[in-house]
Amino acid sequence: MRKIIRAVLIVLILGFIVIQFFQPTPNKGEITDADILQQHDVPENIGTILKESCFDCHSNITRYPWYDRISPVSWMVDDHIREGKDELNFSEWGKLDIYDKITTLEEIAQETKRKTMPLKSYKFMHPNARLSDEQIAAIEKWTTELSEELLKNSFSE
Ligand code: HEC
């Protein structure tokens, strides 16, 4: 019995070591003019929320704590980043047309209000990313104001 347990442990440990050689490419791009913080005069409190709670999955630059670099955690994190960027990439904001921007702003307000964003697993590991009721209200106000501004500018062009 003891021998079997030892063999299983050795296989598990070796397996764990082997999978460390399979790491996803880190999400480390450049900040360009298309970034939402370059495109708009985003209020400071909102900029802080986006950077602290959203950019790790919804931008071209992720901050990786050490445990995010360990397989299989790194694979899960990579999945979240790819799916998250697919839905919304704040680094490529400027490439959206006005309709997509306005719909996305609406979705941002909804997802944060429903507390479905940021993801639960992320909030668990990053308690600072949790949004207070005041922060959620501030996001809603900002998304409404920015939508109105975008609409107004599109009419005056
Ligand atoms: C841990 C990664 C992660 C973080 C952090 C995160 N998101 Fe997401 N987000 C995702 C993933 C994955 C999806 C796509 C799957 C889904 O909708 O659950 C997504 C989808 C979305 C969508 C599209 C929803 C839809 O169904 O159309 C919006 C809007 C969004 N996120 C906003 C935010 C905002 C705002 C924040 C910060 C307050 C945030 N997210 C933080 C991973 C993340």
Q: Topology of this structure?
A:
Blueprint: H1 2-19, H2 36-39, H3 44-58, H4 73-87, H5 98-113, H6 120-125, H7 133-156
Bound molecules: heme C (HEC).
Heme C binds next to helix 3, helix 4 and helix 5.
Biggest pleated-sheet summary:
none
Q: Indicate the proportion of strand residues.
A: under 5%
Structure classification: mainly alpha
Helix content range: 55-70%
The number of strands is: 0
Q: Output mean pLDDT.
A: 96
Order of helix and strand elements from N to C terminus: HHHHHHH
Q: How many separate domains make up the residues?
A: 1
* Uncertain stretches of 5 or more adjacent residues: none
Number of helices: 7
Distance N terminus to C terminus? 78 Å
Shape: elongated
Description:
- This protein is mainly alpha-helical and 157 residues long.
- It has one domain (26-156).
- Helix content is 62%, strand content 0%.
- It is built from 7 helices and no strands.
- The longest helix has 24 residues, at 133-156.
- 20% of the residues are buried.
- Heme C binds next to helix 3, helix 4 and helix 5.
Summarize the structure.
It contains seven helices and no strands. By secondary structure, it is mostly helical.
List keywords for this structure.
mainly alpha
